[in-house]
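pinned: reference chain
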Amino acid sequence: MNTLLRLLARRLVWLPIMVVGVSFLVFSIMWLSPIDPAYSALGETAAPEALEAYRIQHHLNEPFFVQYGLYLWGMLHGDLGTYGVGTGYRVSDEIAKALPLTLQLTFLGLIIAVLISFPLGVIAALYRDRWPDQLIRVISVVSIGTPSFWLAALLVLQFVGTSIPVSGEVPAFSDDPSGWFLRMILPAIALAVPVIGQMTRVVRTSMVEELDRDYVRTAIGAGIPKTVVVARNVLRNALITPVTVLGLRIGYLMGGAVVIEIIFAIDGMGKIVLLKGIQDNSVALVQGGALVVAIAFIIVNIIVDMLYLLINPRIRSV
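pinned: its structure tokens
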């Protein structure tokens, strides 16, 4: 347990460094944008004096590193800037409303992908080169080749007007669990399908490699039932690679959720923050949305690192 806590502390020490690095990258990219934040905030019809006053007030005439330092200081205090012509809406308020829905959609898609891909991968490995394996290979290839946005559009066309809603407000899970599930299941399926194919192949490959190891043949030759060997040893050892890949796929799911939200009219980060920011030419809104998604991805991958240690204690010494 002490080793686990030490490794957790080591990763938490790196967390603020990675957050600062990501914030610097996002700020740099948006700083190079030709869009003038003063025009975005006050409108193109604003007087030159008002535009200049806005730039002075928000330090837009300062050197790059001064601007970044002020942005970083505001970010540490929960201030990601304002947006909207003459409104001054806080970016952090919009993100606070949108981020929970994006995370819910991401993790529902992740759960669906795990619950389907892991059993399929195990079955394919156990029936290697036989008809179940061949069938699962075909399913995984078709799944990988199915774009999420295309599948989402098909699902909208198929289920519009049915008892499964494809638009409208998402009810809170605590208030209406069944309504929440019906509203989120179709976008989650569209998000999960490509990941199912990828993870099925990874799980199958990892299982096949583990089943070919000497200890498996020795244990089975000693009279231990194959099911016991697979359940106690093979599955646990074979999970390391799939969990590693799954951590990377979470970033894909989160990025894909942003697109899927727009198709299914879900008020998450994609529709409320990034799309609105692009439509309104709001640098602060796009910058804040991209930054928060990137930080969420970093935190999720730290959690995945901890899962490695729980699955395989041998890497606790690394």
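why pinned: The mean pLDDT is 83. The first helix runs from residue 2 to 31.
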